[in-house]
Design brief:
- The chain is mostly helical.
- The protein has nine helices and no strands.
- α1 runs antiparallel to α2 and α5 packs antiparallel against α9.
- The protein is elongated, with a radius of gyration of 18 Å.
- 28% of the residues are buried.
- The mean pLDDT is 88.
- Keywords: DNA-binding, Transcription, Transcription regulation.
Amino acid sequence: MASVKTRLIFRAAVDVFSERGFEKATMDEIAAKARVAKGTIYYHFKSKEELFVFLVEQGTELLHENVLSHLTEEMDAQEKIREIIRAQLAFFTAYRDFCIIILRETWGDEARHREFRRMLVHYVHSIRQVIEQGIEEQVFSVENAEIAAWSLFGSTSITALHHLFADKTVDLVALAPAMQEIALGGLHAKEIT
């Protein structure tokens, strides 16, 4: 983000969009929350929709950086998948309001959904590469790494959203072990020994 004012607008927009939803939020509320003139917002963004797209773009970049920065070359594919799940849940805990915005608002409007999906492609592609690594290491047996990557992102995100709506204080990272077990072990019955 380029300027201090843009950062103030970003934070205020996250607060207002998460509290009121995209349709009910107004540029006046965002300006008041950011403590800037409404004209300042319009100087940076032509419309509420453009501001929303900026917010989602910045947020998905943060997601990408925060989650993937935890992966190392030394990790095998299973360790990377465990870390992706844990770090994504940690991100959604740290950026709770942003999580609610992107997961609630982007599914409601087709244009917003397409834009959000376009922004997520880079992140999900990184997950796909980890899954392909696991296929090469012969620890994953999926046939379609892209579907697996989108499924991993989607299941982790929707589970996070469900718990964030149910309890604002929930520690999403505590859900990581169960989600890692499902992601890496599937829903197969355990063998009786």
